[in-house]
Structures
1.
Amino acid sequence: MTTQEKIGQVTQLIAPDTTPEMIRKGEVGSILSDTDSKQVARLQHIAITQSRLHIPILFGFDVIHGYRTIFPSPLAMAGSFDPRLEENEAAMAAAEASVGGQRWTFAPMVDIARDPRWGRITEGAGEDPVLGAAMAAAQVRGFQGSNLADPHHLLACAKHFAAYGAAEGGRDYNTADMSLERLRNVYLPPFHAAVEAGVGSIMTAFNDLNGVPGVEDRLLLQEVLRREWGFRGFVVSDYDAVQELMVHGVAGSPQQAVQEAFSAGTDMDMHDGFYLKNLPALLEAKRISMARLDEAVRRILRAKIELGLFDHPYTAADAATAATHWLTPATRTAARVAEERSAVLLRNANGLLPLSKSLDTIAVIGPLAESGSEPLGHWYGDGDPKDTVTILDSLRRRLPNAHILVQRGVAVEGDAEADARAGIARAVAAARQAQVAILTLGESAEMSGEGGSRSCLDLSGHQEQLLEAVVKAGKPVVLLLMNGHPLTISWAAHHVPAILELWEGGSEVGNAAADLLFGEADPGGKLPVSMPRTVGQIPIYYDHLNTGRPGAMTTRYSSRYLDLPLGPLYRFGYGLSYTTFRFSNLTLSAPSMSPDSSIEIAATVTNTGHRVGDDVAQLYIRQRVATMSQPVRELKAFDRVTLQPGQSRTVRFNLKGHQLGFWDNASRFRIEPGTFDLWLGDSSAGGLHTTFLVK
Ligand code: NOJ
């Protein structure tokens, strides 16, 4: 390869910046975000037939939760506590995307997020490293399959390395600053799990971590990723992040930016063309070695070979063929089941849900009932809002003979006072005529996702007023929340009898919601993230350290707020069902273990109600005394079970010594002897309790 051809392989551009001449000269190794499958095929054809070395282009796209069939957001899916469901979603998304000509997805997003103000919280698995690691690995397996060379699979990309979710103040792109202990114990495990699952690429984070922007972080890219974890794939920058080194103020010129990023280990440059323009001079001046360029090129070519791109460079199908692969009954059913398993029942006073199908008048109120676009979220692949089954569509189909009174009430935001007042009055009138009011409230897709940070997480616009007015109308109210950020809904939590968190529910949100509302599916999802009472409590997460003065309402001198009760509004791992469960018979295979052995834990879960339902058994531990303060609880394992009325099942977990260790601030992994508490239950509070010893 000539030097120019090598530099081409480390360059990723968007199609509008790419000319046929550049492709012929081998100056573009990868193209991102081109969903015009005819154009994809045409550009690939130029690369294959007219470039000197016939190296195929790697087309990449953000296939985050679906390509044409849009599944629930990753945050929602994490709430399923069902990694197999997540794996299946990723496999289906990969198959749809490959028919569109894509072979690389910029997913999974595995950033731990403990600040619900951060808009990108919706793209990841929430606050917990063990749940996050399980969901990361599942997505890698699903996207990549067991044989990457199968053209229906995609190369996965774990992002954003690292600690992007810890942006200060929840403001996107902001600085993250944290101890090594926290980085390694909380933020890195999902990345490590993705690498262990064989992820083919890693994307660096925009943010600086302890003053070092992601693209030039040698500690992460060299020490951790390559030396410790043995990662063999390639690293891509985030969009323009090489250029942004100058804005961060760590490079004084484009050449310096490229030198920093490339020599630190960022193999491919996304979008800004900085490698293309600046590597020739840097190589000439020997400020970058040819060996380093060869290393990056080899990693990228290896990925192209492993993807089978040289054998099957064209995966984009014509429109007629593609239509038989997209939005099929199978993908739609999968999206519907995924949403049913992800939704979280937050409240169900007096068993208001499930509703009877013999209702004859219902009011459907709120700005989101008829929306096809908002449930798809900020990343919706190549999805089309017209393909969404909305809440209203499905209610009409489910209750063909009922009177359905539809009132938008207010917009998600932006209504003038007078319009809001009039809309609320109409909604209240509708509620008064109905036997039950179903309210769809929450956020528009644009209110979360990248650049979607919010300083206030209350229901936006006049939605809270609408909600309160409708509740005061005196009819039973079911609140369907449709949102990217976890919201602060304290009033609703005390006054609305039934609240179902649907998140950004995807193309089948309406069908799933109707199944849940009428009891054709049982809500079994759990919160993958704590829901705060107010933004003043943020950051808030269940696995915090104890402090020397743990929060207690009985004393002022404890770690709490004077003006709030302790804890979040709804805790991590929480979620109701239409049935009830009991945990009993907690047993351990031994009272103690050594760091290199394991212990078996078993308990019985019984469905004590009258309906079939799902519960998630969650195993938490805490080390009582160690050389560093330890979290008050840490999730170590979970298992979602489906039980018939009266049925019991034994859940079993194998806890290994290494799951009990922690990283210290000198990057040493320690498993320390001592007493551990263990809880087994169905949320991050309570549960059956016992202790064991590590010797
Ligand atoms: C910027 C985002 O941070 C990243 O997640 C995404 O993959 C790229 N843009 C490409 O769209």
2.
Amino acid sequence: MKKSVLVCRAVFPDIVDRLREHFEVETNEPDIVWSRDELIAHLQGKAGVFITGTQPIDAALLDACPELKAVCSMAVGYNNVDLPACTARGVLVSNAPDVLTETTADFGFALMMATARRIAESEHFLRRGEWTKWSVEGFAGSDVHGATLGVLGMGRIGQAIARRGALGFGMKVIYHNRSHLSAEIEADHKAHYVSKDELLRQCDHLVIVLPYSKESHHTIGAAELALMKPTATLTNIARGGIVDDAALARALAARQIAAAGLDVFEGEPSVHPDLLKVPNVVLTPHIASASVATRLAMADLAADNLIAALGFGPNAGKPPTPINPEVLRR
Ligand code: DGY
């Protein structure tokens, strides 16, 4: 009898077909966001689960689903998965790194540019029928070329943003990260390490690309925003919760910083109501990795991981991107 797996959200049919070559597959075609209890009910009897970045997988859920052996996510961020709990129970977890790096960096750069050049704000003005004359200072924003780009979190996506800034737009790139990058990587990206406070003080455009964890919760709050230039912009493509959205809304309303571009929010899909009231913010619904090719590649990689983790396909027993590979060695 085939093993059973669950695909938590609606995904491309080709991906489901690939999984069906090896497994009994339960899908969620109507794309319902299941409650925790519904998720546990759907997971009964399943050996593996294909998740996205939003289904919470924790110790209590694992205990309620003892047959689960593989949790494979199509997201790169895995703050929704309790990794130690999975490892302790011998459950393999995988994510989807690399395949989304360039697409996500494209979007981060686009959001930063839209924020700096006030694209959304001016489009709303035009759509409201308020454009009656051209004016010298109309929606004058700040330059991106030649400005100082501050990257907070210099992993793969942070580095891809730094490359765009340094090599494409002649920006001065400074970064802050848990660790210094090697001199070689710094040279390739024309990037200089600075303390977090210096990053905030010096940058014209801050782009946040940190992974979310208890430690990175509210890395940017009122005190940090107060260090930034009044002309600076802030772009968050990382995770909601890294920025204190209420404090950011206050800083934007008071013009303590010039503008923000946000793709992720605390408690999304809810958005802090004060962010909806301020004009100087560009808001997008967590779509940084959303090109068709990249979402397909992410889903494909999650399927590769699930198939291999449960012992099938050309990589049987060797999923390509495990996060807790120690489980495989047991
Ligand atoms: C990721 O891959 O982590 C994106 O944010 C989508 O969840």
3.
Amino acid sequence: MTTILGIESTAHTFGIGIVRNRKILANVKSTYVTEKGGIIPMEAAKHHSESKEKIYSQALEVSGVSEEEIDAIAFSQGPGLSPCLLEGIKFAKDLAERLRKPIVPVNHCIAHVEVGRITGAKDPVMLYASGANTQIIAYASGKFRIFGETLDLGVGNFIDNFARYAGIGFPGGPEIEKLAKKSSGGPEKKLIELPYTVKGMDIALSGILTNLKQKLESGKYGIQDLAYSMQETVFAMLVETAERALAHTGKKELLLGGGVACNSRLQEMCKIMCKERGAKFFCPDRLLLVDNGAMIAFLGEIMFKKKIYGENLDKIDIKPKQRTDDVNVRWK
Ligand code: ATP
Ligand code: FE2
């Protein structure tokens, strides 16, 4: 029996999860939100510092696990915002020192992928659509390879940026989804033409963002119709590249992940595509899609069991720019 505690702190969320034998015993988090405007890294880090003790005791309480039962501390090593990552690693190291346990440095993006195993997906192509990242990932010979990605903004940041411009607070995604549902009312929703920018296996979003802002500014278009058209256009770009990755790799499973995967229209479009090409569709629960500590603990446990961890705490540092395909996957 192994019990792993996982810490997530890469951006807006400070979360702690506890996993035992692939079962999630606790997944507690606190998220920094703003009424207006985007995320300020130092403010988010302050939020983490102020929430960490409370989140930690809640996680222990919810799980019924005592400190002595924890075998290792996993934490998000990167990619992410440095001030936020530093809060996480500091908490991980202090705890590891006090409990005399090893720490397991986990790549945040790969944790989003690997926690998908909980849904039953075995060897999927993953459409990872979160705030800072948008990638099509699949495992091939020793690494999680990126088959396609955004060339500029992550899709969540893109949506948040437009939402902010329209005077909606952070995160903008859920509000944009609600607005899109109200587009022009009735079944005849109004699709406004927007640039569609798929380049090979990659996508680009900044041109669409500028276009959307200009359209909003012109006063000729309603925010609900723009929100709807944005979702239809950009999600079609994601689904197109994901489908092509399924075709190239010959894999038969699509796994959706990252915070934007909470969007029911994106889920619907992925389901339709999978049905049409005879692939299986997987999507974890909402609490595992957004940033959370349970996914860090989940991958932490897999790595710990393969003896991939560090005991010399001085040698372990954050990796704010670590890429998915930088990591040698030694646990498969
Ligand atoms: P990363 O994994 O790249 O570090 P992150 O930490 O910002 O990114 P997540 O917590 O995975 O990401 O996702 C947050 C993003 O998900 C935000 O941009 C938010 O607007 C978006 N989001 C949440 N719910 C929805 C929704 N219903 N529709 C669209 N986007 C959504
Ligand atoms: Fe994330």
4.
Amino acid sequence: MLDFAGNPCFSVAIVIHQNTRQKFACLDIKFPLNKTLPPMAEPKVNDLMERIVSLCKRRGFVFQSSEIYGGINGFWDYGPLGAELKRNVKDYWWRSMTQRRDDVAGLEATIIMHPQIWEASGHTSTFADPMVDCLLTKKRFRADQIDPQSGVVYHYSGAEGGGKKSEEPFSVILVPGKNPESARKVAKQFYQQRGIADAVLMGERTEKVENSTRYNSENGSLLTEPRLFNLMFKTYVGPVESAENVAYLRPETAQAIFAQFKNVMEVSRQKVPFGICQSGKAFRNEINPRNFTFRSREFEQMELEFFIRPDEAVEAICGGVAKPAGASHPGHPQPNWGWEMWHKYWVEERLAFYESIGLPRASLVEYWQKPEELAHYARATVDILYKFPFSKRNEAGELTGEELEGVAARSDFDLSQHQRFSGKAMTVFDEELKVAWGKLDEAKRNDLANRYYETRLKYLTKVGEPADKAEKQARENAQELGKGYYVPHVIEPSAGVDRLALALICNAYCEDQAPDEKGNMEGRVVMRFHPRIAPVKVAVFPLLKNKPELVKKALEVRDLLRPHMTVFYDEGGAIGRRYRRQDEAGTPFGVTIDFDTLGEQGAELKDTVTLRDRDTMKQTRIKISELLPRLLERIQ
Ligand code: ATP
């Protein structure tokens, strides 16, 4: 196993959940295999992720943070290729979510914000994970991520030895097939740690248990009772470390969007429905960072808050509320869309986004959270999962996937909370609603106002407002609706940059065979990134570096392409080796300047180059003047 100091459970995770069959079944070998060469060894079931991690380090996608000091658990740096990959992901997300839409505006807010933001959002009180510790090793786990175990539990009331006695109870689980002595050994270690040398165990009794999550699956030791642990990183603003100067590194980028909602709406002259998006750093003091960069303590998010009318307003204006009719994309947004249509729309838009950067639909899972899994304010949440090699498998042996993004219909909870805590109105005025309301008959008005009153009352009661205050407030809100005022509801697609980068790396990783200098087949690692997000778009090679005419022409081609894309110029080593280096970096195109380019084999070939496709390894001759449009078409 690779030694990634500070990330001890990574190796465990990949041993348990590894799959290579699926990945390597799709090998695309374009060249005939040299019969004398043994086929490339099928990677062992457990080492695909290990190979990917190794490539990430070797080629400079990801490094351990502070590596020269032994690393720091849960923090990762991106090397030259990783930095480009991440930048491409964020830029493409920004372009598709904001620049290519009329109805979304961007924001870039600070990481440290007024601490009351986190009171209003609920993070101070509820952004916590249950944590347990192993009583033997003190290793810490998230209680909800403990694998259930069945077996016989050995309970002890204490131990004595060397003139000392401990009456602290301890238990160990013994899974089927293991010798009871191993349970006793673990118990003795526990008491030895409490100063009892040569411990003689006391009061042994056994108990059968099924699917218990009270024991450490690594050594069988009892775990502590779960305790809640707030994941926010705390700091102090200013020189005095006092309670009133406490601030937090943001655990998500979304809250700044809510806090700046009014400002952005005003300056961008948007009207509901519209969205605000932001990408940037977020920090969570995760109990158990693991699976490489998947669960980190510092990471980046890409979040959109899309503000919509409450359904009662849509019904008043349009006479009805459209509901999703099937499983497919609901099409271009319409005025009669309620929250369900908008939610479905964003789920489909986001799935299409992932496909557009090369994640096949079959590698993604659309997981609809069950009612009991939903946050109390959420009406529906779809998690978009990617089938990572370390994902767990279901009973049918299929990878179940891990979350890349959550698309949540969050009602009007967030803005309402900031309205309550800041005392600033988060309502919008909707002229169309006011006009439409005036034309409704009384029965319809009462019906809509009553429904709106009920949902507002439910929210206000849930957040702890006293009954009389909640009723009064909800009644006022229902009256305001009739005048065209409401707090917008929100659909939130919230994605992680680092998880997506890791998914793209896992998805791109391929091993196949390619011919070496002499035409013999050899194994190659190729990163099949979609050209849109590939770190380097094109490599430019003069065939020989000691021919000044070739080098001069190659530099001209490099300078022609460089203003438009990332270009890597490489003149060192045999051309096959140079191709191989770019295959590993995932560079989709290679341009070679040879003697034909100089017109030495005929005037008709002058100023043509070979364009090599990374995936097919096919080379085509193309005029230099056609190179830029051809490449731009593929990378945009
Ligand atoms: P999880 O259940 O995996 O902890 P979450 O549901 O708490 O994730 P959200 O709060 O919905 O995550 O955050 C939105 C996105 O931010 C996630 O879908 C994920 O892509 C990313 N993200 C959240 N926590 C982390 C983390 N510790 N490391 C890397 N990315 C993260």
